[in-house]
Each structure stands twice: as C-alpha cells, then as structure tokens.
C-alpha cells in the first residue's frame, strides 16, 4: 500500500509535457516531502516491509505505463485524470488502514493529499470534458 510515491512519480512521467503545464511551483515544493512522511508513518504503524528495491516498486505499481510513441494531449489529460482517480482510491484504502491502526497523524496527512488529488481530478475533468 505504501508504494504510493512510485505512483506519484509514475503519474508525473505518464503525463509528460501536459503534466508540467498545470503544476504550480508550490506543488513542486510540497510534493517532495511525501516519501519521508509516508515512510515515517509506515514505520510507526509497523505494517509489512518498506520498499526494498526498484523491482519491488515495479511489482507494487498500480498505474500502468503508457509506452506509446505519441498520445494526443486530450488523451494524455484523460489518462492522467483516471490515474489520479485510482490514486485517490488507493489513498482512501490507506486511510482506512491508518484508522484501523489508530494512526491519526497518517490519516491526517492522507486527508490533505486526498483533497489535493480530488481537486486535480476535478481540474482534469473540466479541462478535458469539452475536448473529448
């Protein structure tokens, strides 16, 4: 469940140039502390093992790579919206685990990230609904 940073990075990679168009400077600065915050919460909750290798990250990957030579911008944004919806669902599962383990701090972090991603899903929906 805590391979989410790999998903964050993968979603960024999948969107290519389109992703860079709507990422704010503030988001760039606040996004980076997530792996440390997740790792700390994971350590405190004591569930499972942490990420041990690149291959482990690949096995945990939930967002599929798109290796097409060209994807039109509207399709790229639609794919990114779907990836973000999937990420929100994964974060909600993780939030339930935090609740189950009594990890209020982890649940609070996730609530903020879920809210950010839901806003992004809305933005991407509004951006693409006339283009599709």
Please supply descriptive tags for the structure shown above.
132 residues; mainly alpha; Ferritin; 74% helix; flat
What does this structure look like?
There is one protein chain. This protein is an all-alpha fold and 132 residues long. The protein has a single domain, classed as Ferritin, core subunit, four-helix bundle (Ferritin, Up-down Bundle). It has helices spanning 4-21, 25-31, 34-45, 54-60, 73-101, 104-128. The radius of gyration is 15 Å and the shape is flat. The relative contact order is 0.17. Residues 1-11 and 13-22 have low confidence and may be disordered.
Question: How many structural domains are formed by the residues?
Answer: 1
String of helices and strands? HHHHHH
> What's the gyration radius in Å?
15 Å
Mean of residue pLDDT values:
75
Distance between the termini: 32 Å
Give the gist of this structure.
This protein has six helices and no strands.
Set down the secondary structure blueprint.
Layout: H1 4-21, H2 25-31, H3 34-45, H4 54-60, H5 73-101, H6 104-128
């Amino acid at each position: 469940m805590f391979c989410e940073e790999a998903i964050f990075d993968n979603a960024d990679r999948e969107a290519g140039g389109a992703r860079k168009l709507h990422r704010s400077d503030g988001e760039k600065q606040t996004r980076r502390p997530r792996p440390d915050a997740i790792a700390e919460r994971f350590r405190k909750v004591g569930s499972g093992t942490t990420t041990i290798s690149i291959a482990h990250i690949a096995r945990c990957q939930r967002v599929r790579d798109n290796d097409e030579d060209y994807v039109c911008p509207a399709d790229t944004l639609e794919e990114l919206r779907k990836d973000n919806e999937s990420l929100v669902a994964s974060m909600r599962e993780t939030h339930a685990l935090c609740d189950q383990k009594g990890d209020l701090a982890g649940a609070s972090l996730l609530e903020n990230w879920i809210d950010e991603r839901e806003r992004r899903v809305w933005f991407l929906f509004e951006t693409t609904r006339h283009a599709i």
